[in-house]
Amino acid sequence: MSALLQCLSHTPLKGYFDPDAAVVQEVDGLVARLRGEVEAFDPDVIYLFWPDHLNGFFLDTMPQFCIGMAAESVGDYQTTAGPLDVPRELAEACANAVVDAGIDLAFSYRMQVDHGCAQPLEELTGALARYPVVPIFINSVAPPVVRTRRARLLGEAVGRFARERGQRALFIGSGGLSHNPPVPQMATATDPAVIERLINNRNPSKEARDARQARTIAAAEAFTAGTGTLHPLNAEWDRRLMARLAARDWAALDAYRNEDITADAGGSAHEAKTWVAAVAAMDAACAGAWKAEERYYREIPEWIAGFGALTGRSD
Ligand SMILES: O=C(O)/C=C/c1cccc(O)c1O
Ligand SMILES: [Fe+2]
C-alpha cells in the first residue's frame, strides 16, 4: 500500500511570539520540505489525528476519541475559518470499521476543529480543503485521558481500514511533544467563569478569543524569560519518544503511564498520542513495510513547544 506519514508539532504562537529569525527560518524550511513531499505524494485521502484545546470539545460531554463526518475550522490564532473537505461516506465507513474492531469512538456531523487540526492541514497542504480529510480527535487536555495503548489500538484500526480501501493515504499526527501551555484544568479551576468556559465555550466572541490568545502570548513571554510557572520542556523525553516511535517499539510505547507523561513532559504532552495513533495507523496500513525518519527536533520556548517532526514512507 502506498502511504505517507507526517508527524509534526503544532504551535499557535507562530507569528505572535517568535524565536530568533534563524530558528523561524529553519522551521519554515522544514515545513516547506514536508509540504513538498505531501504534494509529490498527492494523497487520495488524509487521516488526521489531532488534539483539541477546548475550542470544539468541552466538558459538557468530552469523548476520548471522535471522528468527524463533517467538520469546520473555528479559525483560532492564525488559522483559517471554514469547512474541511470530509468525505462523508468514507468517514462513516471508517467509524464503522473502528467500532467493529472494538474501539468505542464518538462521531460528529458538525465537528469544530481548532489549530490542532487546521494548522497542520494548512501548513502541510496549503489549505483546509486541498485534499479529502478524515479528522480524528484524541482528547489530550481534559483528564481522564486515554493511555498510549488505546491510541495505538485506535491507530491500528484506522490503518487496517485504510489498507482495505487501498487509497493513497497520508497519516498526520499533530501536536506534542513536551509542553504545557496555560490550558485550565477542572481539577484546579475555582473561578466560576473559568469553570463555565471549560464546560461550554463554543463560538466565543472575538473579544473573548483575543483575550485568550493574549493570555497564551503573555505565558510564552514569561516562560521564555524564565519567570513563568509552566512545566519545562523536556528534550530527553521528546527524543526518546521519537526514537521509540521510529523503531515502533510498541512494548515501550504501551508502557507509558499518564501520570508520568504529565510529570515528565507537561500536561499537554498527552498530545503526543496523536503521533502514537498516526504511527500505528501507518504500520497497520503498510503491514509493517515502511521506514521511519526522524526529521527535526528543537526545544522552542517562545512557542511553548518541544518541536519535532517524524516522517514515514511505505516501501
Ligand atoms: O489553545 C491555546 O490557546 C494554546 C495552545 C497551545 C499553546 C502552545 C503550544 C501548543 O501546542 C498549543 O496547542
Ligand atoms: Fe496543542
UniProtKB/TrEMBL annotation:
Cleaved signal peptide residues: none
EC number(s) recorded for this UniProt protein: 1.13.11.16
Recorded metabolic or biological pathway in which this protein acts: Aromatic compound metabolism; 3-phenylpropanoate degradation
Reactions listed under catalytic activity: (2E)-3-(2,3-dihydroxyphenyl)prop-2-enoate + O2 = (2Z,4E,7E)-2-hydroxy-6-oxonona-2,4,7-trienedioate + H(+); 3-(2,3-dihydroxyphenyl)propanoate + O2 = (2Z,4E)-2-hydroxy-6-oxonona-2,4-dienedioate + H(+)
Pfam families named in the record: LigB
Root EC class: oxidoreductase
Cited InterPro entries: DHPP/DHXA_dioxygenase, Xdiol_dOase_suB
Annotated CDD domains: MhpB_like
Cofactor(s) for this UniProt protein: Fe(2+)
Record key words, sorted: Aromatic hydrocarbons catabolism, Dioxygenase, Iron, Oxidoreductase
Active site positions, chain numbering: 115, 179
Domain (Extradiol ring-cleavage dioxygenase class III enzyme subunit B): residue spans on this chain: 7-308
GO MF annotation terms: 3-carboxyethylcatechol 2,3-dioxygenase activity
Family: Belongs to the LigB/MhpB extradiol dioxygenase family.
Subunit composition and interactions: Homotetramer.
Biological role stated in the UniProt entry: Catalyzes the non-heme iron(II)-dependent oxidative cleavage of 2,3-dihydroxyphenylpropionic acid and 2,3-dihydroxicinnamic acid into 2-hydroxy-6-ketononadienedioate and 2-hydroxy-6-ketononatrienedioate, respectively.
Name this protein carries in UniProt: 2,3-dihydroxyphenylpropionate/2,3-dihydroxicinnamic acid 1,2-dioxygenase
Origin species: Thauera sinica
Taxonomic lineage: Bacteria, Pseudomonadati, Pseudomonadota, Betaproteobacteria, Rhodocyclales
